Amino acid sequence: MTVLGNRALGRATLARQLLLDRADVPVVDAVAHLCGMQAQEPQEPFTGLWSRLRAFTPGALSDLLIQRSLVRTHLMRRTVHLLTADDTVAWRARHDAMLRQRVLGTYRRELAGIDLGELGAAGRAVMADGEPRSMAELVGALAARWPGPPPRALGEMLIAALVPVAQTPPRGLWRAKGGVRNVLLSSWLGREMAPPAPDGADPVGQALVRRYLAAFGPAASADLRAWCGLAGLPAAVAAIREELVTFRDERGRELLDLPGAPRPDPDTPAPVRFLPAFDNAILGYHDRGRIIDDAHRGLSVAGERVVLVDGRVAATWTVDAGTVAVTPLGRLSPADRTAVAEEGRELASFLSDGESHRVSVAASPG
User: Fold this and answer.
1) What predicted TM-score, i.e. pTM, was given to this entire model?
2) CA dihedral 287, 88, 95, 214 (to 10 degrees)
3) What is the DSSP string of 253-312?
4) How far, rounded to the nearest angstrom, does the alpha carbon of residue 215 sit from its chain's CA centroid?
5) What is the pLDDT of residues 211-268, one digit of tens each?
6) Which of 64, 217, 241, 292 could disulfide-link to 313, CB 3.0 to 4.6 Å?
């Protein structure tokens, strides 16, 4: 079986994630290809799409949220994702059990003895009028009936798990500020969520495996689970295994992939790319060695924005008063520093609507 090293896997990831060459596709198609974008920080997807698409304009994303073609909702790993409306409708029910278990993992004691079916039905009844509500407002409407649990525990279970909701604009619009207000997904989209297959088959799970590999492969089953949070996909993998090709990584893990998916030569040049906080190009794997060193792995869950140099995390970045400030994690060659500065200037211009091209690249450590 062919062994793929980290450099080969990294180039495959860059190609699948639209980070090797910026893509000339509509925003909604890019979000669909990426299987959604992690978006608990509302402004971060704008940078993520700017790094992936040619001629991306922030208004294109904002318009799609207003038009309800894209949706902000809890899904993979119980985190807020930006997804297409079609994928949200198709995938939400498949994630229901995982979402409940993830909330119980945090609040099991606080929610002990609560009939979650009854709680969910009551929450949906309150939200059925289509009026956007904050978590606190929904909990307040139910507090007399469930006075025992802490409001946060009750609210998280309702909003993140039991009641399928969308976060309404202006949340998630370009440079917009505002608290989270939620509305039933079915009301927002004018469609009910697709129910599970009645015969016990798992067509949604199989679709998730194919879509994940198209955007993240080659990857191990553990990577798939780390991306979506779903434990019940081995049967889906088994059902489509004959469609797939297999490799091994340097640790001996079996890697699955779609036969026609891009796997560029490991020596393919990789341009500098600035990634937003919590980008799934990093978080979408259990083994992230293809793109980030183990010593820096914690950056990916701490909300640090990172810079890719030669396809790997090589620096962090922030922006303040229109200046993009880059902090290298190790030595950057003069050519790398120049490339980082050039891309940083373009990012500064994007984030400031052309008013600033300022970038600073700190000295390399040591």
Assistant:
1) 0.96
2) -30
3) -EEEE-TTS----TTS----EEE-TT-HHHHT-S--TTTS-GGGGGGGGTT-EEEEETTE
4) 12
5) 999 999 999 999 999 999 999 899 999 999 999 999 999 999 999 999 999 999 999 9
6) 292
